[in-house]
Amino acid sequence: MYIGVDYYPEQWPRERWETDLQMMKELGINVIRIAEFGWSLMEPEEGTFDFTLYDEAIKRMHSYGFDVVLGTPTATPPAWLIEKYPEVLPVDDHGHVISFGARRHYTVNSEVYQLLSKRIVTEMAKRYGQHPAVIGWQVDNEYGHEKSDRSYGDIDQTAFQSWLKEKYDSLDALNERWGTVFWSQTYTRWSQIPVPRKVYQEHNPSLLLDFDRFCAEMYNRYNRMQVEVLRTFIPERQFITHNFVYTGLAQDQKEMAKDLDFISFDNYPVWGGLADPISPAAIARQHDLCRGTKNGKGYWVMEELSGAQGWSQIGYNPRPGHLKLWTYQAISRGAEAIVYFRWRAARYGTEQFCHGILDHDGKPRRKYDEVKEVIDSLSGFADEWIASDYKADVAFYHDPENEWAWQIQPHSDQFEYVKEYLRFYEPAHSLNTQANIIRDDEDLSRYKVVVVPIYFLTKKRFNDQLKDYVKNGGTVVFSYRTGVKDEDNVVTEETLPGDLAEMCGIEVPEYESLRADKSSHVNGQAGVLEGLSSDGEVWSDYIETTTADVLATYEDSWFQDKAAITKNNYGQGTVYYIGSGVESAMIRKLYTSIFQEAGVRSSETPEKVELVWRESSDQTYLAVLNHDVEESHKISLPEGEWSENSTGNSYSGELMIPRLGSMVLVKQK
Amino acid sequence: MYIGVDYYPEQWPRERWETDLQMMKELGINVIRIAEFGWSLMEPEEGTFDFTLYDEAIKRMHSYGFDVVLGTPTATPPAWLIEKYPEVLPVDDHGHVISFGARRHYTVNSEVYQLLSKRIVTEMAKRYGQHPAVIGWQVDNEYGHEKSDRSYGDIDQTAFQSWLKEKYDSLDALNERWGTVFWSQTYTRWSQIPVPRKVYQEHNPSLLLDFDRFCAEMYNRYNRMQVEVLRTFIPERQFITHNFVYTGLAQDQKEMAKDLDFISFDNYPVWGGLADPISPAAIARQHDLCRGTKNGKGYWVMEELSGAQGWSQIGYNPRPGHLKLWTYQAISRGAEAIVYFRWRAARYGTEQFCHGILDHDGKPRRKYDEVKEVIDSLSGFADEWIASDYKADVAFYHDPENEWAWQIQPHSDQFEYVKEYLRFYEPAHSLNTQANIIRDDEDLSRYKVVVVPIYFLTKKRFNDQLKDYVKNGGTVVFSYRTGVKDEDNVVTEETLPGDLAEMCGIEVPEYESLRADKSSHVNGQAGVLEGLSSDGEVWSDYIETTTADVLATYEDSWFQDKAAITKNNYGQGTVYYIGSGVESAMIRKLYTSIFQEAGVRSSETPEKVELVWRESSDQTYLAVLNHDVEESHKISLPEGEWSENSTGNSYSGELMIPRLGSMVLVKQK
Amino acid sequence: MYIGVDYYPEQWPRERWETDLQMMKELGINVIRIAEFGWSLMEPEEGTFDFTLYDEAIKRMHSYGFDVVLGTPTATPPAWLIEKYPEVLPVDDHGHVISFGARRHYTVNSEVYQLLSKRIVTEMAKRYGQHPAVIGWQVDNEYGHEKSDRSYGDIDQTAFQSWLKEKYDSLDALNERWGTVFWSQTYTRWSQIPVPRKVYQEHNPSLLLDFDRFCAEMYNRYNRMQVEVLRTFIPERQFITHNFVYTGLAQDQKEMAKDLDFISFDNYPVWGGLADPISPAAIARQHDLCRGTKNGKGYWVMEELSGAQGWSQIGYNPRPGHLKLWTYQAISRGAEAIVYFRWRAARYGTEQFCHGILDHDGKPRRKYDEVKEVIDSLSGFADEWIASDYKADVAFYHDPENEWAWQIQPHSDQFEYVKEYLRFYEPAHSLNTQANIIRDDEDLSRYKVVVVPIYFLTKKRFNDQLKDYVKNGGTVVFSYRTGVKDEDNVVTEETLPGDLAEMCGIEVPEYESLRADKSSHVNGQAGVLEGLSSDGEVWSDYIETTTADVLATYEDSWFQDKAAITKNNYGQGTVYYIGSGVESAMIRKLYTSIFQEAGVRSSETPEKVELVWRESSDQTYLAVLNHDVEESHKISLPEGEWSENSTGNSYSGELMIPRLGSMVLVKQK
What does the record give as the active site (chains A, B, C) (predicted)? Predict the structure, then answer.
């Protein structure tokens, strides 16, 4: 297994390199990522290349036996480039040109930039494609991060128009599908179509969704261009990856991943400006997204947080145990390599307060020791753990286009996409039920339950898959606002939930958006929900059943008789519909029963204690992860004798897991 | 009486038209507004006109016996127009050009746009001026809505300079009246005068007020141009109107109304982003503004909300009863026609979530039934009700220039113009006392009481009217910050309340702005206020009396002896001054006594129950409107036998009015 | 002593001048500041000068015996100037050009503007340099106020590049010191360096700090240019000053002051938008900054608030007593002249709601009477009081560059520079301990205690001074985040507190930024802190001691053993380190003991009662200032017989000081 660090040799005097490499060796790492912001060093002026520094750095790393991952440096076009080709700079939605002075200051739609990128990547690939120490490549860095996903300049507008022409072929088709007859927006020439710069009200949602698709696809093309250059010059043994962020950008990771050998992920459970880490479920969801991006294939964590992070604002300082905990969580959920960001905190530049394994003074202290503990504990064990399977009987549907559609029309000030997604994901996570996050390219019959949260923008193809799946005995869980839109971001003309109404056995003749100071009240009426009640946030679907059974209703003087949660038999299968943003406890209760009926494993543990199973042919692996910063918790181990590789200890029955404790237990089959 | 719908035939396939028209017929409507966003259909390229779609639509509507109102489509200049004449686009106060992509993306100051508008309106007028189904015209749509009232581009600057030259004739006069000697702003050429783009501090308030006047007047000229074109081609029987919004824009509805046959209003008691409807008094105030715009003349509600509204954020879903209640309220206060917005929710475009009588699925449900109930209940009765008089013994003064002056200098973060206006309007509304909202062009002697709230920007002419009125026995109620400014937005050099000090019998030597976390405490000292106390928000005038009596004082360790509310005899009349933002209950108590003394009818009803009287020569009409969403209320009917036309039921004595109930009762004289 | 008013003769009709001057005479003032916004009057068109109005005004003032201070009018370039030279307008960090229409609408980097400024100042100096009434000059007005300190246009960028070239000489040096290797920012031509316009993330902190230095220095050069012009034409007896604001702008008052005879200050303890005055300590800190700007030299208050202030929002109305109190506070802390802003409130322009001694109606009332009381009370006494010494045994360090560095990286949303500075200043102020605010150009041995709060950006030179000072017996108090940065805004590579670690006797291996909803808990462990506890905000340094003693520790399940406050013996002296943003009470307790040990006078008074001592050879002056708006307080006078000059009363033992009372007591030595 690869465990390594992100290192910036260019930021330190050469006399320090030996110290650092020596300390890394002692720490036990085996891989180093470098060079992803090194363009001005490699090409100090246009067309002049100088790889001296990286030659030397790689040579020394190689001499220590480290493998090297190289980043292409296109996230940071140098000053000379911007001075000479200022048209490369992106433009925001008010028309402000983004200045040189930080990073990601290019629009992917600039042809000049594409050419310049191609040249530097070609030179790098030629230089290091045959180097024995170089095992792979990271293309660029965190595409789209920090609002760099969308650019609104003239270059972008022209590219958008071309992209639309490719997609729709005729303006008639575009006008028809966008409904431009609304507000006299009919386009009679491609050149009339705007990028969504500032308007008095709001743009056409169909244009906005296509603009997001365009932005995502242009990044994919840009990435593909770099990948193709690399493939021309590098051998098979060198991999190509990119380090994704999953923050709702106009990026389509799954499409981009098709061009990559595997994907990578930058894992920051807390960052500048956050007073506390995000929830265990929120971290887990990101790992599940990673694992799902190439349909179950393992991925690298190319940046794993190793200290407090921040630019001008600094976030929470991870407590002792956090680094190991988050590393174990990552591996248990599919990461095959961990690269810590960063070896040592930078003394200058915007990221001065991104703390690393070492702080500014370069002295090993508790974070160094903790990473050492991780490495030691995994020694001789990691490979088999990684090789084992992550099995999931449940699937959660996620499509970035649906997320974009929600961003375009959030309905309520209470609505945040990730929060709402987690409303339906977290209860399953808290039951330690393993799930994959999928799109519409998987065989649903693999799964016993498919949860399709806030499925607002629908795809006919997936609707049909769901219908078949349920007809053949599957179980589907939908939530409020299912079935509203077609792929053009146009509202269905069928009664909601539209194309999915029949399988749900319901109609939604009325609904309501609830703002931050509003909530509904929902009472369970049948089955496991009987006697339970919950507030409902964000949205109320006031449901009438056609064939479904009512599981919960609204307590409301006007909508007293309307259903809030229903269950329908459809073909051989079952469909649930949760029409209100009810509380976690109610959803968890419902899931308990759904999972039980469907034969899905779930297990209650104390809040914040996460269990993750892996299976090999002869062993079961159980990661026990206590995310609680303050309290130890007792859990009941599944039957059998469990041993911990790193200590040799054996456990059965009850196990006390200390605060922020993390362990991997193994049981023979 | 006209009751109809806003319909967009261009947004639906022709095969649906028949279904829709059939359903409308069954519903019982008699008028349809169309075409106000149809420019790109009518003029698909510059100078080429095609009225096929609207020809066909009007023909079919006519065949069903519907009358048609046509909107001129200038709120939505087409894409080809903006591509060819980008100078038409407006500019915001930071210099950002507003993009094509929504609506109202033109500056009224563009001469090119004026010409292009003239041409399309000419063509429409020629086409439909003689059509038997067409009964009238709506010019453009909601002028100034969504910040489109003010544009800050170079074209606008030149027009502003010309407008100023017309107004002031000489720069000396402008310099003198604006006080440009302050901060060396003296202008020596007209071309030096800026539009109020971003500055480090704040612009000269006199310039700002004139800029608002300019913006309003340029819209009036633009509207007049369209009206003149229409009048050239249409017959007398076709009316011309415009659908106003009353949201504090730089618009002067009363001036514009002089060019219109009657005004129209778009009535949205709740919209996207509001968790609840605005208060009954706030809706009533807007109707009173409408009725006052042409000094009592009836108006159309050209858009009456018929479902939850919103763009990317959706508002409160009106409860069963709301549509009828708001319709009855509108008619009782002066609306002569109701056109529901919109027949059916659009499937595409920005307004996807503007719900209508029908939702996206086009099926009649409770909103359809409710509108039907409205129409049935008014059948054979509406005309006489509408023909009856709205009588008012009380007048409230409102001048948009005063509102603009407050927007320019709100004094406190607690101050919002409408909220403060309602502070003085709502207590009268809650006493069911009928009032007109007037400007300075009415004979005050018609009224027993004139309330002049937050009269900051004064007009000499109105001051003189007030003095005469009181001298002759009238009663006037002023509030804090009366008499501060002259028409140039310059502070008086008389002791406050300036020109009105003598009639108030007071001086205001000290005052204080109260921010959101500050309040005063006011104790009643005499008359009906004795024993009452109230917190005071927003502002404290620390009053010294000259001839007035003190009705209330401050409880304050420093201003203990200062008056907060006073009463003065002036000539034959009486003047009240309320120097603090006291609570509704105290003002209501004071009004009770003022109205009683002045012989004005008032009646207490449960909170949220509104009564509106109308009178004909032989009958009295009483609208009983329960705005309470949750509770029924008992009211005591005025003496006599009251009957309800729609049911034939008779009532006397006590009446239980259900939640959201609305009824019109009639009594023979 | 000079006591006067700010007057704008140009804003009033000449017939009013006599009334005003007569009233001023009766009030007892002796100096008037005029003309600082009079450019368009003096130069109504380019190159044409007309001093008629000011000639006449000065003549009349002279005839009344008033001395006159003239402002150069460059804060308000006239309309003709901007029309002809629009390149003079500044640009904000998004690229928006700041419009004409308010004030300070110039970039100091415009060479055209420098020339035009030079010309008007030359003409003024020639005109009034010999006038007997003119005693001095104020250059421009409030440099940098309201964000006018930083301009981001092309002119500014070129100037910034030149300035950097002067500073660094070679790009290699700049690249090295800024660490531009980070994110490929290496500059290969000076013309590549940006001004810090909008980027996706954040600019390099080293660039940002140099940009602030550049902005400050360019203002200093601009000021020096004006001073040099003046010196050429005016006699020695006329002083030159500038009225500073101390609000964290990119301004270096101390550097600028070197070119001035003395500095001036605009003293607004409350202004538009504030519901209450800032705290007594916050006002005192500003006076201490003033006094420190020229190392103890007295200064003028060129604008002393005399009424409620505000532009479109109006602030708190000062209560009776406030004017005298704030005047006495100013004089006691170093002001040698008081000029009240403004004689009378303006009727027009942006500052209509800046109230003065007179309000808009021009009638003398309580504020006039209160100023008269001030003048009478000081009559025949002020000069000796002013001539006496302000003695301070304690020094507080302040460097604007440190403040800028904090603005660039505030670490936490809880952090505001002034609030945090006051966290360490206010406890000393509340103990009535007199302190000077110093930079690194003073002999520290004058002081018994030196407090160095939030010393983030360090200077080697000052570090060395501190070390010497403590070695020789001095006492230093540091706070959290000491020693982090070098002068290039680069993080030290030593363990914190870096260069100061040895003298502190500690190391800070871990720390944490606390956001608004986070706090630590600190328990006193030794000395006066034993038994005390406090919450800690903003920041926690988790301290390990090397040679220091622990005074307080964290109550925290993870950092239980870490120190929060320490004390170290170093050489002959003592160093305290306060590693957490603890509460005022804990710091006051600690100071009590530190001051006692160091032999510094302190005395407890009721909260909000401030004592300020002055000393002459034979007398002690004690200003007693009760800032409490509601309550009188009893204080114990220092031993001896104290007399009040204005009343002739004598006091000893206990003294009752009424709310907002202020008095100066004198005791013979």
Answer: 142, 303
Q: Are residues C459 and C589 in the same domain?
A: yes
In this prediction, residue B363 has a pLDDT band, given cuts at 50, 70 and 90, of very high
Average pLDDT of the residues in A151-160: 98
| Residues of C whose CB is below 8 A from B514 | 275
Instruction: Tell me which residues of C are annotated as active site.
Output: 142, 303
Q: How far apart are CA C316 and CA A617, in angstroms?
A: 77
C103 marked ligand binding residue: yes
pLDDT of residue A347: 98
Residue C403 has pLDDT above 90, yes or no: yes
Q: Active-site residue numbers of B? A: 142, 303
Question: Which residues of chain B are within 8 Å of residue A207 when distances are taken between CB atoms?
Answer: 101
Question: In a 10 Å sphere around its CB, with 0-12 CB exposed, 13-18 middle and 19+ buried, how is residue A41 labelled?
Answer: buried
Residue B572 shares a structural domain with residue B617: no
C-interface mutation test, from A6, A37, A352, A368, most C Cβ less than 10 A away: A352
Provide the domain count of chain B.
Answer: 3
What CATH number does the domain containing A657 carry? 2.60.40.1180
Write out the residue range of the structural domain in which residue C618 sits: 609-668
pLDDT over 90 (residue A272): no
Tell me the pLDDT tens digit for each residue of B366-392: 999 999 999 999 999 999 999 999 999
As a 3-state breakdown, chain C gives helix, strand, coil percent values, each rounded to 5, of 35, 25, 40
Inform me whether the pLDDT recorded for C422 exceeds 90. yes
Domain boundary among B332, B358, B387: B387
| A496 & A621 share domain | no
Match 């005995």 to its residue by tokens.
Answer: A473
Look at residue A336 in the predicted model and tell me its pLDDT.
98
Q: Which of A146, A342, A348 to probe the C interface (max C CBs under 10 A)? A: A348
B91 shares its domain with B236:
yes
A317 belongs to an annotated ligand binding site: no
CB contact under 8 A, A491 and B360: yes
CB pairs under 8 A between B and C: 183
Distance CA C430, CA C304 (A): 24
- The model's pLDDT over C42-51, given as tens digits with 9 standing for 90+, comes to 999 999 999 9
Contact: A557, B630; criterion CB under 8 Å? yes
Determine how many CB atoms are found less than 10 A away from the CB of residue A278.
16
| C186, C202, C492: residue with CB nearest A350 | C202
Backbone angles phi, psi at B393, to 5 degrees: -95, -10
In terms of domains, do B367 and B435 share one? no
Residue C39 assigned ligand-binding role: no
Give the predicted TM-score (pTM) of the model.
0.97
Cβ <8 Å between B311 and A496: no
- CATH code for the domain of B367: 3.20.20.80
Which pLDDT score is estimated for A542? 98
Q: Are A612 and A625 in contact (CB under 8 A)?
A: yes
Tell me: do B52 and B29 sit in the same domain.
yes
Q: Residue A96: CB partners within 8 Å, gap ≥ 6?
A: C94, C95, C198
pLDDT for residue C272? 87
Average pLDDT value for chain B: 97
pLDDT tens-place string over residues A395-442 = 999 999 999 999 999 999 999 999 999 999 999 999 999 999 999 999
The CATH number of the domain holding residue B576 is: 3.40.50.880
Q: Do B147 and A412 touch (CB under 8 A)?
A: no
Secondary-structure breakdown of chain B: helix, strand, coil percentages, each rounded to the nearest 5: 35, 25, 40
Does the residue B160 lie in any domain?
A: no
Pairwise CA distance, residues B102 & A200, whole Å: 7
Q: Are B621 and B586 contained in the same domain?
A: no
Q: Is the pLDDT of residue A268 over 90?
A: yes
Residue A351 annotated as catalytic:
no
